[in-house]
Amino acid sequence: MSLARYASHPAQSRGRRHAEAPAPTRDAFQRDRDRIVHSTAFRRLVYKTQVFLNHEGDLFRTRLTHSLEVAQLGRSIARSLRLNEDLVEAIALAHDLGHTPFGHAGQDALDACMAEHGGFEHNLQSLRVVDALEHRYPQYDGLNLSFETREGILKHCSRANAERLDAAEPGGVARRFRDRTQPSLEAQLCNLADEIAYNAHDIDDGVRSGLVGLETLGEVALFSRYLRETLEEHPQLQGRRVLYEAIRRMLSAQVYDVIDATRGALEAAAPADADAVRRAAPLVRFSETMRAQSTELKQFLFRNLYRHPRVMQTTSRAKEVVRELFAAYIQDAQQMPASYAQRDDRYRAVADYIAGMTDRFAIREHERITGRQWHE
């Protein structure tokens, strides 16, 4: 399939921070994807929380399965829009590499611990992982990914961090946060595929956990429509097949909506190439109706799942573990491996070490240091 004129073409990539000879059988973005898949940080995602802790159930999503679902949705949409599927996949697989153990609870706790030392942003941490914290190659730290993949990984960035990054890499991946331009269409697509994926799989995990019921979900317009259609067409259907079919229809509707709405935006803006995309308004989008319904669903999940007392109980415990690990390592850096303990930037070294932990490793470390069990 030929790429659209406004897609990211690997031959026109802005390159890598460290120059490398091209690979004989792969283009730049395919090479990025392969490096991400083989990284240590990527393997750790299998034991990092999405909503439910890894040890709470074998079938709940983890950061790894979430990333795979984002990549699948992103590639499907990119194919229809003639965007670069390999770049979409690379960004999707790497976008959560910087997430802490215990999901957003761990991130919030680590950000509070680092409040006087530069804070903590998981998107910025994902960039740190691929730029510096992976140690696989003799010539440089990090994975030495292409500009376009790194740009897509840095989904959000505070003004202060953008200025710091831009000073270190003038005109680099943080510049768009200063001049208010957009990333590539592939990066924009990953942002939306991320939202579509977690809305759908959090419904599945919420029902599986028993914290959310189908009856309650019937109050949400986006889901209730496809639940009703499923039951009308398959009145004998029972059990989880009802849920799966309703979610499948909802996912398909969102994907087709993004494709149609984005095509309309691209026709109206008529960008001449990938650089013109950066100067335009965001072009990968939902229709206004789907945007409103997706927002309603996110608000429902926030109230009924993410703030459920059982989830909040785990969240509180997770934050306590992160805070106490942080304090222990600051007090005695020798509790960490030498590669972290010997760094001059003590606070950032501790943040990097904790952010790289899986849920179960963080729990084991906390038990080792404090002598207290997770459920005490």
TrEMBL record:
Segments for region (Disordered): 1-29
Keyword Hydrolase set for record: yes
MF terms (GO), sorted A to Z: dGTPase activity
Stored InterPro entries: dGTPase (IPR006261), dGTPase-like (IPR050135), dNTPase_2 (IPR023023), HD/PDEase_dom (IPR003607), HD_domain (IPR006674), PHydrolase_assoc_dom (IPR026875)
Pfam families found in the cross-reference section: HD, HD_assoc
HD domain location: 63-199
Xref: CDD domains: HDc
Domain of life: Bacteria
Protein name in UniProt: Deoxyguanosinetriphosphate triphosphohydrolase-like protein
Species per Swiss-Prot/TrEMBL record: Variovorax soli
